[in-house]
Amino acid sequence: MAKVGRNDPCPCGSGKKYKQCHSPIEAAEASAERALRQAPDTLLPKLLDAVARFADALPPALDLFWNGKYHVHTVQELDEDEDRGSERFLTWFLFDHLIDGQTPFVRLAADTVDLDLSEAETALMAQWADIRLQPYIIEDLIKGQGFTVRPLWGDTSIPVEDHAATKRVEAGDLLIMHILPVTTDTNFITGAAAHLSADTLDPLREFAALHLADLQRSQPDATYADLICNRSHVFNHFVMALPRDGKELSKLDELVVHTRAMLNVATDSMGFGKAEAPQLAVPAVTEPVASEVLERSEPQTKPS
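^ thats the sequence. predicted structure below, dont judge the formating
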């Protein structure tokens, strides 16, 4: 469509010049969208700083997220041993950890007085209450721009902007991450995303099925959505068990077997049949399965 000149008649048919009619409105809308796209890079640091309000909940949450591997007295080892481990934990703590049934984010959203939020940041707060750590399958790549993903237990395609990540991922790969909705058709990765090859899909499904079956003991009607809301930390446990540097996938076998034994889930309750427990089929691997942690690129929109 041809660009409308400032002195041309406004396309709305008002009879006014474009500059006197819809041009200011569209300029204001474009400015508001730019502010929204830039707001995550200022809002997230404010929220992560405010996590200090929940200091008493941090030690048990740290133990839960890292499956007992790290504790408060060993927290300094996190970033040495785990790619951006502190950021991964704090992002999960903010959006996922439940304190008396509510996440720290929900509690902060209910009292933003001390956060000194801009108008754009306030608008984002209203969209982020349901953000959780969960697995996504990459469907399509948009070279140099981003990709579309689908939640592992969903059928909605979500566009994600991340021009740098498109150079390192492939269709069919998995990403375990938090996705931030920003505008109607704009979503970003927040913090770090665990990048898994397609070889891990079946083990991850079985691992999650075991945890869902365990959750259903206390919540018979629980679904994968409930698992994500109540036990998203188990996805980090799965990432922790992934082989690196091209090692064999046998550790995933061990993880699923250990999880089944630990949770004592009856195989027939998961539809596997009573006669014999399922054997985990692990494809051959030619490349490292989880050799990196992705992070969102620098702000996609620069101030004009």
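The longest strand covers residues 186-196.
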